[in-house]
Amino acid sequence: MPKVGILGGTFDPPHYGHLLIANEVLSKLNLDEVWFMPNQEPPHKKKSESVENQERLQMLELSIKGNKAFKIEKGELERTGPSFTVETMRILNEQYPHHQFYFIIGADMIEYLPNWHKIDELIELVQFVGVERPQYSLQTDYPITYVDVPAFDVSSSMIRERVSQGMTVRYLLPDSVIDFIRENHLYGT
Q1: How far is CA 11 from CA 33, 42, 182, in A?
Q2: b/e for 99-123, b at 16 or more Cβ within 10 A?
Q3: Sequence-separated (6 or more) residues with CB below 8 Å from residue 57
Q4: Nearest CA to 65 among 183, 176, 171?
Q5: How buried is 141 (Cβ within 10 angstroms: 0-12 exposed, 13-18 middle, 19+ buried)?
Q6: Which of 34, 58, 75, 149 is most buried, by the most CB atoms less than 10 A from its CB?
Q7: Which CATH superfamily is 3-152 part of?
Q8: Omega prior to 13 cis, within 30 of 0
Q9: Could you give the CA distance from residue 113 to residue 10 in angstroms, rounded to a whole number?
Q10: How far apart are CA 2 and CA 128, in angstroms?
C-alpha cells in the first residue's frame, strides 16, 4: 500500500520551509511520496490577490523539480470555492483506495484543528502528521503523529514582504523561484 504525505498550502510563494518539512516527513515516516496540494481558496486565510493560480503552480513545479518523490496534486485548484480538507480527502480516498494518506500540518494548524470543517469525519479519512513551528503549541486531543523537523522560521508572507521592499530572499527559496518572481514582476518586484 503506497504511503503518501499531503502538504497543503497556498505556496504563495513556495519556499525551503515547505521543502524541508516535506523531505523530513517523507524520510522519517518512510513515505513513498509527498504530494504538494495548492489551495484554491483556503477557508482559514486569504492568498495573495496579485498572483494567479497558474503562477503559484509554476513556482511549485520549479521548487520540486528534481525530486522524484515530490508530486503536485491539483485537485483543490480545479474546484471552486473554499478548499475544505474533508472534501479533498473523500475524493482522494475514492480515487486512490489502496493508498494510505498522511496530512501534514504545522503546529499553527494543530491549534486550529477543533475549528476544521467536519474534523470528526476527517480524522477517520486521514492520519494527521504534525510538525513543530516556533511559537505554537503541539497540544491537541486529536490523534496526531509528530515529526521533529529542524527549525527554519520562514513564511510566504515574510518572503512577499521582503520582495516588495527590495530585500534579499536568497537561501529562503530556490533560485529558480526567485528568478520566476523577478521575471514575472510578482509581489511588487
Answers
A1: 18, 11, 17
A2: eebbbbbbbebbbebeebeebeebb
A3: 38, 72, 74, 77
A4: 176
A5: exposed
A6: 34
A7: HUPs (3.40.50.620)
A8: yes
A9: 18
A10: 16
Grid coordinates representing 115 are 475549528
At 44, is the pLDDT very low, low, confident or very high (cuts 50, 70, 90)? low
Q: Which residue has the cell 520540486?
A: 64
Residue 76 contacts residue 39 (beta carbons within 8 Å): yes
Q: Grid coordinates representing 46?
A: 486569504
In the chain, where are the structural domains located?
3-152
Q: Do residues 120 and 13 lie in contact, with contact meaning Cβ atoms separated by under 8 Å?
A: no
C-alpha cell at 181: 518572481
Mean pLDDT of 69-75: 96
Residue from 157, 173, 155, 177 nearest 165 by CA: 157
Which residues on neighbouring strands pair with residue 38, listed in sequence order? 9
The pLDDT of residue 45 is above 70: no
Query: In the predicted model, what is the mean pLDDT of residues 10-37?
Result: 97
pLDDT at residue 151 in the model: 86
Q: Is the Cβ–Cβ distance between 63 and 19 less than 8 Å?
A: yes
Rounded CA separation 22/28 (Å): 10
